[in-house]
């Protein structure tokens, strides 16, 4: 995406957001989408296995596992005197992933064995038009091991409900067994072939110059083909899969692209948040620290730079659902399209403190946007984000914030069409912020 003016309309911003969501069915595709936009904006791609030559006034990005990405700007190389303004989000979403031996034949039907990834709202995956996307690793005709991304795009699978006539008590409570009842149907067994052969054909279709000798392995997920949309009488809402947390990835990316180069700024979008972030490319891994240490190789300068830095962890928040208002603390029940939500938890499930919250409130006031606060009910368990994980890994002051959302972890989530633009403008101002809290 090219830089857009501060006064761009909500409609233009949201339409581009819908395009980003549609083109990002997996973390691999989301990272690819962000990579393309960064390249188009003049950012230089770095490779972790190569030497880095970082220049003053530069713009760079690096990926890991093709599913996590860090992009940053270097208006100065004195990071230990300037610090970093950082935005964090995650590329993954709860979904159904194909098992390694995916093909299942049962009672005359071709099906797929799947494993639940993250905290899926299982029943929402029933009766949806599903497609398949992800990464496939092959041995090519030359004998090299290489990977490519695929996306069937068309609906190729479905998980039908059981008719109420055969399950009369379904409306009294319904629990979906993931081993037996979440297997999607691909077609009739007599019409189906080998699934690996189907993958080969899909690779040839999408990558005609990519010679496949043997498929060695894959990381594939199911996703709903229904396109993202603006809904409501006044198009007040964004309805889409993977709003948690591609919405924040998009907002963070736009903020970085449009903020200019006044201060060292960094966007990190990592994989595996939905399952704890403990991986080589997750927030509970070394990716961010590896990058920051390469930029500040002197240990003293590295610590100094972090002391002058701040991270805003952007991840969706629970909006007040009018049909389930009792699950909220009445004093901390965010409304959709009423501003971003500062997330607070006394037990550090969120990393917000009074100073980081105050900084965001100040920036929002300057932009003329409201700020809300979320605290989970004291008799309920609290979720978490990459915020406390990153704060604990690298020791950076952190704020947890998010946009109010309904149906989080459903196959289709709902957020406000005004909120994303508001967060974008505040985050863009944050990336230009000269100093944090004054020393006393």
Short description:
The protein has 440 residues and is α/β, with parallel strands linked by helices.
What does this structure look like?
With about 450 residues, the chain is of the alpha/beta class. It folds into two domains: about 10-95 and about 240-430, Zn peptidases (Aminopeptidase, 3-Layer(aba) Sandwich), CATH 3.40.630.10; about 95-225, Aminopeptidase i, Domain 2, CATH 2.30.250. The protein has ten helices and 20 strands. The strands form four sheets. The chain has a nine-stranded mixed β-sheet, sandwiched between helices. Helix 5 (about 245-260) crosses helix 10 and helix 8 packs across helix 10. The protein is globular, with a radius of gyration of 22 Å. Mean pLDDT is about 95; it is low at about 1-10.
Give the key terms.
440 residues, alpha/beta, Aminopeptidase, 9-stranded mixed sheet, 5-stranded mixed sheet, 20 strands, disordered N terminus
Record the SSE blueprint.
Layout: H1 10-22, H2 27-40, E1 44-46, E2 58-64, E3 68-74, H3 79-82, E4 85-90, E5 95-106, E6 109-117, E7 130-140, E8 145-151, E9 185-188, H4 195-206, E10 212-224, E11 229-231, E12 237-240, H5 243-258, E13 265-270, H6 287-295, H7 299-307, E14 310-314, E15 317-318, E16 340-343, H8 354-367, E17 371-374, H9 386-394, E18 397-402, E19 404-406, E20 413-416, H10 419-430
Parallel strand pairs: 1-2, 4-13, 4-14, 14-18, 15-19, 16-17
Antiparallel strand pairs: 2-3, 3-13, 5-6, 6-9, 7-8, 7-10, 11-12, 12-20, 16-18, 19-20
